[in-house]
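Dissemination and training. As part of the outreach component of the grant, students in the summer workshop were shown how a complex can be specified as a set of sequence lines and then modelled as a single object. The example used during the hands-on session is reproduced here so that future cohorts can follow it. Participants entered these lines:
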Amino acid sequence: MHLYCFNMTLSEEDYIKSIYHLSEFNSKSVATNAIAEQMKTKPSSVTDMVKKLSEKSLVNYKKYQGVSLSEKGRLVALSIIRKHRLWEVFLVDKLNFSWDEVHVVAEQLEHIKSDALIDKLDAHLGYPKVDPHGDPIPNKDGVFTKSIKKLISELPVGSQGVCVGVNDSSAAFLKFLDKNKIALGDTFKILEREDFDGSVTISTRAGSINISKQIATNLFLEIVDEE
Amino acid sequence: MHLYCFNMTLSEEDYIKSIYHLSEFNSKSVATNAIAEQMKTKPSSVTDMVKKLSEKSLVNYKKYQGVSLSEKGRLVALSIIRKHRLWEVFLVDKLNFSWDEVHVVAEQLEHIKSDALIDKLDAHLGYPKVDPHGDPIPNKDGVFTKSIKKLISELPVGSQGVCVGVNDSSAAFLKFLDKNKIALGDTFKILEREDFDGSVTISTRAGSINISKQIATNLFLEIVDEE
DNA sequence: ATTTAATTTTAGACAAACCTAAATAATTGT
DNA sequence: ACAATTATTTAGGTTTGTCTAAAATTAAAT
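and obtained this result:
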């Protein structure tokens, strides 16, 4: 038996992905309203769809009790996320897109149905482990190493890690990073944090620089060593 | 004003493409039944859709008189075909798909909406002029050099050309070509044709070989020089 | 030139995915 | 504990793209 079904509509896939992301951290059940907000639809539409997904055993659902993904649903979600992130790597590594442009296009590409395509794309990209934002790419069976990606503002002094992503992906912010010689893949160490303004001094290849709290809350590090 | 509209549904795009292909050679108007057969739907569904496309000025349509693409519709068709063929090149050149596998996947990829994506893909592939089947790739403005691709069986003795495609793309046929050292991109010259069985002698890099009429009716050459 | 056959269109229905408005259940505040 | 608020569901309607069956038009055949 195949792990996930191919006969899913675009809309069904989007709902599954949405539910996955909403329950990614607080692994409780997800509220109808929360899904409606994320999907930019109305709660009544969500109820309709959730019933449908429940009949397909993709979610666990009891009236008024919220929704959670079944194991089957979780695997579907992970296969979509795998595709999304592989396409993002492709767009950045091969087509020279910048971080902030890839999401919208990947949202479309993630729905392409072809196992062979994804296998070959994966090989072509050299079996990447993370996407351009530093998020882990699940393997074929939905297995992935949980990211220990954290915002600089949330890390203690002494932490060291590889810059793997941004929170704010506006053109302005990316331009700022460029000007300050901060790039994806660089290794940083957090040297000092000022209590009064939350600014942080970090060491980079180009020496040490001080970044504002606002910047610190928008840069993700993948932790290598935490003192 | 943009040359083609982005707010088209998947189904609308498929109909436009279908009408384009049906009127590609006999440039008359296309019959409702013909579209229905190609699209694997019923004639009544075609009538509905054709009315809709007519209101959007994508086709010329008068009751009981058949359909033809408007200039606008033709440009939409060519932009879809451009995408389809670029993706086919990508699948073969970069992901190592074989000729016969790419069509189905490209049918999905051709609907991805992003100008930037197609521009960058085009550049990444080195601005190819033809797809893996030897069919020409229209440029951004829908301009393309009409292919002078012909079956070996239809060419006179003395013709010379580059092998650009196959008619029958079965695994068995592709295997046969492989065994006889015939590959896409090879230059052939037609040396002789036997009247009694239609078999043809062609010169290849590896010397001259005789191919049966059946093979000759399944191999396309892009003509370089015709005596 | 009619009749027959084939093609095309209309009319009415259906499923998917959405909507609004009203009803019901759960939660919160006092 | 119970009224008020918020969250969720139901009921009924819309649009898109499909269908079947019947009616209308065109083409073919004798």
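The mean pLDDT of chain B is 88. Students were then asked to discuss how this feature might be tested experimentally.
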